[in-house]
């Protein structure tokens, strides 16, 4: 069975990655439509190695007869057009923050909670979690299964690609300018990002947390376990692709480093690379272009009962966004939940 698929936000970094991964993984498609805002109409985007798609207008597109839409256009646009697509019978997988915490919308990481897909028909919308949440829960799930996670303290080191193409351009231009004594132009971030780190991602809330930090807490509870406590500090770093996270976990039950490593070795979507030697860990450059969540630096945390600490890294444009969305589509297909719409 092959499906008619629309990719919304096809000219953005995640949209292009969605098209690339759909082709790479040979998702069964009969037709792929690239959609974006009116100003992008007529642009060309690649689908696989030998196909080029002309971008069409999202505003004018009728989703009737489209089986699946992968959305990554920004939350405000998804708020308008994702329900419209869903109302026309199209299954929507939305990569924005718009629907993640709505009760009737499943928030899904296929390696962690594929059973949640059974509830998507209420809204016909499935939410893709935040990039930093995805890689953390993929690493936590096999550990939670054997010792039950109680509390997580996480510090993230997030690349600029998580903020879009303009943010990547700003890092490039500031870096280049620093060698010719050009003053940095600051537009995408609160402070210069080149040769700097910025302890703010998204906007501040009343309690002093940012919304990115809030997302990691509430999304982890929705996906993995409502009783898990999470405190996050999210930091933007001058890296183009790939998020790193330093994760400290307190478990309800005893767990050893060896037990944790054994569980991670068997876990889907996890690549344990943990050598106690110089360079015996994975960095964002190593993970770029890869589908796995890499776990390194596994060790005991002696400051809490039943504590472990580890480092995890993932390509935020792939597993943190586009790949996870395509894996959701594959899981819908595998479970027989994705139906062909009348043409």
Explain this structure to me?
- The protein has 343 residues and is of the alpha/beta class.
- The chain folds into two domains: 3-129 and 321-334, 3-Layer(aba) Sandwich (Rossmann fold), CATH 3.40.50; 132-315, 2-Layer Sandwich (Dihydrodipicolinate Reductase, domain 2).
- It is 29% helix and 24% strand.
- The protein has eight helices and 14 strands.
- It has helices at 13-24, 75-87, 131-147, 165-178, 211-223, 257-266, 284-287, 318-334; strands at 3-8, 29-36, 44-47, 51-54, 56-57, 68-71, 91-94, 125-127, 149-158, 229-236, 243-251, 270-272, 293-300, 307-314.
- The strands form three sheets. It has a six-stranded parallel sheet, sandwiched between helices. A six-stranded mixed sheet has the order 10-9-11-14-13-12.
- The radius of gyration is 20 Å and the shape is globular.
- The chain starts with a strand and ends in a 9-residue tail after the last helix.
- The mean pLDDT is 96.
Task: Summarize, please.
This protein is α/β, with parallel strands linked by helices and 343 residues long. The chain has 8 helices and 14 strands.
List keywords for this structure.
6-stranded parallel beta sheet, Dihydrodipicolinate Reductase, domain 2, alpha/beta, 343 residues, 6-stranded mixed beta sheet, 29% helix, 8 helices
If you compute it from the alpha carbons, what radius of gyration comes out, rounded to the nearest whole angstrom?
Answer: 20 Å
- Based on DSSP secondary structure assignment, what is the total number of beta strands? 14
List unreliable stretches of 5+ residues: none
Helix content: 25-40%
Q: Number of domains in the coordinates? A: 2
CATH class of the largest domain: Alpha Beta
Secondary-structure element pattern, one letter each? EHEEEEEHEEHEHHEEHEHEEH
Rounded to the nearest angstrom, the distance between the terminal CA atoms is: 14 Å
**Mean model confidence by pLDDT:** 96
The fold-level CATH name of the largest domain is Dihydrodipicolinate Reductase, domain 2
Strand count, sense and closure of the main sheet? 6 strands, parallel
CATH architecture of the largest domain: 2-Layer Sandwich
Task: Decide which structural class fits the backbone.
Answer: alpha/beta
Q: In percent, how much strand structure appears in the residues?
A: 15-25%
CATH superfamily of the largest domain: Dihydrodipicolinate Reductase, domain 2
Count of helical regions: 8
Strands ordered across the widest β-sheet: 5-2-1-6-7-8
What general form does the structure show?
A: globular
């Amino acid at each position: 069975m092959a499906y008619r698929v629309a990719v919304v936000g096809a000219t953005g970094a995640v949209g292009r990655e969605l098209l690339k991964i759909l082709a790479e993984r040979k998702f069964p498609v009969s037709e792929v439509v690239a959609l974006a805002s009116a100003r992008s109409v007529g642009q060309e985007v690649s689908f696989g190695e030998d196909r080029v798609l002309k971008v069409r207008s999202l505003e004018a597109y009728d989703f009737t007869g489209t089986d699946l839409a992968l959305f990554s256009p920004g939350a405000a646009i998804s708020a308008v057009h994702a329900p419209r697509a869903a109302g026309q019978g199209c299954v929507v997988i939305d990569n924005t923050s718009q629907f993640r915490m709505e009760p009737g919308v499943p928030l899904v990481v296929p390696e962690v909670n594929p059973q949640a897909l059974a509830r998507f028909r209420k809204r016909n919308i499935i939410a893709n979690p935040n990039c930093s949440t995805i890689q953390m829960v993929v690493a936590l799930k096999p550990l939670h299964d054997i010792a039950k996670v109680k509390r997580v303290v996480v510090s993230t080191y997030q690349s600029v690609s998580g903020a879009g193409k303009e943010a990547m351009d700003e890092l490039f231009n500031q870096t280049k300018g620093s060698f010719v004594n050009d003053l940095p132009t600051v537009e995408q971030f609160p402070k210069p990002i080149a040769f700097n780190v910025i302890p703010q991602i998204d906007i501040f809330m009343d309690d002093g947390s940012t919304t990115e930090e809030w997302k990691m807490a509430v999304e982890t509870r929705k996906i993995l376990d409502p009783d898990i406590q999470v405190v996050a500090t999210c930091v933007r770093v001058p890296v183009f692709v790939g998020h790193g996270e330093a994760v400290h976990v307190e478990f309800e039950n005893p767990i050893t480093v060896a037990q944790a490593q054994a569980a991670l070795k068997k876990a889907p979507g996890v690549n344990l690379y943990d050598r106690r030697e110089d360079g015996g860990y994975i960095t964002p450059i190593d993970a770029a272009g890869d589908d796995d969540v890499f776990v390194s630096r596994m060790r005991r945390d002696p400051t809490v009962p039943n504590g472990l600490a580890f480092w995890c890294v993932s390509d935020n444009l792939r597993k943190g966004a586009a790949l996870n969305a395509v894996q959701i589509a594959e899981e819908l297909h595998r479970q027989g939940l994705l139906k062909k719409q009348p043409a």
